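Model the whole thing, not chain by chain.
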Amino acid sequence: MSDSISKQDLIIESAAKVFAKKGYHNAKMGEIAAEAGIGKGTIYEYFSSKLQLFQEMMDQSLNKYFNKVVIDSLEKIPMEKRIQMLLQGHFQFCVENRELTRIIFWDTEIIDEELKDWAYNLRKEKESVMQDLIQSAISEGELRDIDANLVTQIITGVLGAMWAPIVLENKEFNIQKLSQEVTDLIMNGIKAK
Amino acid sequence: MSDSISKQDLIIESAAKVFAKKGYHNAKMGEIAAEAGIGKGTIYEYFSSKLQLFQEMMDQSLNKYFNKVVIDSLEKIPMEKRIQMLLQGHFQFCVENRELTRIIFWDTEIIDEELKDWAYNLRKEKESVMQDLIQSAISEGELRDIDANLVTQIITGVLGAMWAPIVLENKEFNIQKLSQEVTDLIMNGIKAK
Amino acid sequence: MSDSISKQDLIIESAAKVFAKKGYHNAKMGEIAAEAGIGKGTIYEYFSSKLQLFQEMMDQSLNKYFNKVVIDSLEKIPMEKRIQMLLQGHFQFCVENRELTRIIFWDTEIIDEELKDWAYNLRKEKESVMQDLIQSAISEGELRDIDANLVTQIITGVLGAMWAPIVLENKEFNIQKLSQEVTDLIMNGIKAK
Amino acid sequence: MSDSISKQDLIIESAAKVFAKKGYHNAKMGEIAAEAGIGKGTIYEYFSSKLQLFQEMMDQSLNKYFNKVVIDSLEKIPMEKRIQMLLQGHFQFCVENRELTRIIFWDTEIIDEELKDWAYNLRKEKESVMQDLIQSAISEGELRDIDANLVTQIITGVLGAMWAPIVLENKEFNIQKLSQEVTDLIMNGIKAK
DNA sequence: TATGAATGAGACTTCATTCAT
DNA sequence: TATGAATGAAGTCTCATTCAT
């Protein structure tokens, strides 16, 4: 197992760990190297700079998240079930990848003027998959006729809000039950009937 | 006007501007001083360090936000109307305080190991006002009988998601209409009836 | 005296000393700072980089040399006398400014691709003054009718060759006598009559 | 041809090329290896360090130059003719070995405290052949009775000055004519008769 | 013998903070 | 109180050299 992982991946993995714990600016290259159990200079054999390492790591992390969370909900099943799967996937991911979750949802610091746009667009690009999903559900009459973009934002917002207690507070909770509850709220609203 | 503002506030204001634009680590004390039109050393007459200045600024910014946004919705009026006011206040604030908005919702970078908890708790504390509000609405039967904490998270999540397009993309939009739409979605859900 | 010198000049002076002794690449900023009796960071208050410091120092050194050596020989006196003054000035400068001499005539290492041209042209520009001098002497019949450029090169070559023994070998010699001898050789050649 | 050259020589040749273009400090071992078409580690099979490689290369280059330029002029022919041959050889060498020329006459950077003396003495040693030549010409009455050392310096100086335009500026010129002109100036001086 | 992935010492440079004025 | 010149700790990145293959 440990020799089936490429050095490139090993570095990205260690970088994710350290970036998640310390944030971009407080993470030191030496610390990432130590975490990977390699020499400082070795990182530069695979990545040209700290910034590039961060970008590569972020790109990979977002991919991992979206592959796990969004793609799973692409099957042709009722929307309500899909959203529940989405939330369930999200919670599962949060629990299993605490470091990555922190990076994806928290570490949005301004590292670099250009990186700001890169990060924002990277996220929007990934979200467009979700938006398409919503749009088709609206077209097929499963969802109310509302701005798909708005709904996407709301769902993303909810996801974005529901990782902190899990990851930061280490709360015990029932994934199944929580995702059902939240799905219900998103689908039917909070108003008493 | 400009001489009615204390030097302390002047510095905080300048700090907010620079922190919002550059992020904590890329903001330089010299730049904040220049923005305030004072000498670099003068900042240290009012704040003991960059970190303390950031904390003071953050605290004040969050207060400003919650006072504006939450407090306005505390009157004893129907919950639906309140949420709409909350959203309207939020959007209004976003438009009028683009810099502060960025700081409050974006610049959550990990500045310092201890600051992480401080920032998280500061936010939770402010949110508790909202949670009380929700709880009482549930008690009075206006809202469905669900975990008030969950609802708070969802609403905060939605707010947290709905600033970026406004502030970062400079989108034109109708505040009144948008807040009504989002309120409707939160209250009644997204499912077609 | 020591407080009449600006910090800028103090740094250049120290830089000249260290660059002369160690060469560009072996000179360390910390060493230059130590030589100047200031902190490492202070250098960067006056010069943006090591390279810029080197260029500034070099520019100033060449100016000092040419002002001392060439300008003195501009008076309207016989060419033979002028060349002798030139040589005398050169030797005088070598003796009095051993460090600068080394920099000007030796430390022509390739520091930077662009700097190479900069250095070469800087030198050529200064030499053009000498070339004009030669040209007018030819026009007025004092010198044989030969390519002024060639003569300039020869004289510069001789100057360039006649610093090393003085500076590197610390040889004792009679400036007056040596400059007369060399002038004689340049004017009348080496061939027996 | 290419397999008649030893790997040692191949490396020295490549080193000369790279050192000439970049200077000692900017030349990278990897680049020299690439130029030679071999692995980085292989260089260390033949040379113990970058410094030793440079010294070996320099020694060989100077030998090549002096063999070509000085030795050719050792035959027992009139001094004037000899000097002309010397100059002609020099110019020929410059044109044919632009890289080596640069190294020999330009790249005199201070690589290492000890190397400084080594380089200076290496040059002086080679020059002693020329000095002996001059001395005998003086003894035989062909040249004026002047310090042979001085004349050597002057001739070396002229040679040292007359490579840059050829190598750096890529000037077109007539080797035959130029060497005759310069010989004339050295022999008869620049003064109008 | 040949290789090139890995290494880590060391250099430049930044910038929060100090302190003499 | 206000200032900004001076500082030096600390971090990124380079590259000669090593050594397992």
